[in-house]
Amino acid sequence: MSNILVVEDDLSLQKLIVHCLSKAGYFVMVANNGREAIEKELESQPDLLILDKMMAEMGGIELLEKLKSQYSTSYIRVIMLTSCSNIEDIVEGLDKGADDYVTKPCDLKILLARVRAQLRTKVMIDQLLRENESLKDRIAGPPREILASSRSKEIGAAMKKEKIEKAVEWPMELRKIAQRGIKEVLFLCKANIFRSPIAEFLFNRQLKRMGDSAIRAQSAGLQASPGSTLPDGILHVLSKMNINLANHRSKSITKDLAREADLILVMEKNHLNSLAELYPFTREKAFMLSEFKLDGNKRLDIVDPVGKRKSMHDYRVCCHDISLSISGVAKFLRDMKIK
């Protein structure tokens, strides 16, 4: 799932764009001006920036100049929003580093099409950067390795393409669960106050997009205080990512919940051990949520940022990891349904 940051001080337009992008399946964050984008949001390294040109506090042009002057943010794709029909204003934005533009009032269909186009370009650029880094490593290595790499370049490229196009080979244990039927999915963390309810929320949203009403998702905690709510500060952070958990109340794992679940997805490896000690019958149906990530960067534990003086960046990384994993779970369900 691609990560998009919308920087727009017109809150009604901001809300409209966020709704449109979220409905299309993107992970969306917001900032009200360029300064807020730099101070809070850009730590999360979005794949695409939708940026208003004219804002009261640090406009789009100034933000663009700062982005393009730093290597770590210079490759972020940027679509500029402008109410200016003046050609010189549009040219200025493109010259300063914007990759495309949309004039206001926004046609959301055109905006979505340009978002898709820029994200396709982002995928190709990321691939080129990875190949460039790989080439640097080879050049720094033994000459024999370079020769071998040169000789097998076409074969390697073909194998890489085949690997990308090939359906994911899901573990036999997961396929057996799918064969028995998955009607109940349970997400589990320690306190059921941040990670597992976010996973439940995002998974239910994915199910709605897939049109799958046969599966039900719940969340619980191994050491939850039943009835606890999320602090206002965390709710505010989540609202900026279009995640609404205002009505969430924590609950503890019970034997009935564990038994009814066809698939249990936990956030940390030690959760698997704790769950198995409580209910040994869960061993065959409990897995790490991060095992479903499809980006090739599988950090086993999805670390809890709550109560540890973590930065905004840590909260966003956690949410992004959960979001990517949920996309993988959705793909798993689609793959199993096809088979």
Characterization of the model:
- With 339 residues, the protein is α/β, with parallel strands linked by helices.
- The chain folds into two domains: 1-166, Response regulator (Rossmann fold, 3-Layer(aba) Sandwich), CATH 3.40.50; 172-338, Response regulator (Rossmann fold, 3-Layer(aba) Sandwich), CATH 3.40.50.2300.
- The chain is 50% helix and 13% strand.
- The chain has helices at residues 11-23, 34-41, 60-68, 87-95, 108-140, 143-151, 153-165, 172-180, 195-210, 232-239, 255-260, 269-278, 312-338, and strands at residues 3-7, 27-31, 48-52, 77-82, 100-103, 184-189, 216-221, 263-266, 286-288.
- The longest helix is centred in the middle third of the chain and has 33 residues, at 108-140.
- It starts with a strand and ends with a helix.
- Residues 144-148 and 157-166 have low confidence and may be disordered.
Give the key terms.
single chain; alpha/beta; Rossmann fold; 13 helices
Query: What is the number of strand segments?
Result: 9
Structural class, by secondary structure, is alpha/beta
Helical segment count: 13
The CATH class of the largest domain is identified as Alpha Beta
Give average pLDDT, whole number: 82
Helix content: 40-55%
Describe the sheet with the most strands.
Answer: 5 strands, parallel
Topology of helices and strands:
Layout: E1 3-7, H1 11-23, E2 27-31, H2 34-41, E3 48-52, H3 60-68, E4 77-82, H4 87-95, E5 100-103, H5 108-140, H6 143-151, H7 153-165, H8 172-180, E6 184-189, H9 195-210, E7 216-221, H10 232-239, H11 255-260, E8 263-266, H12 269-278, E9 286-288, H13 312-338
Parallel strand pairs: 1-2, 1-3, 3-4, 4-5, 6-7, 6-8, 8-9
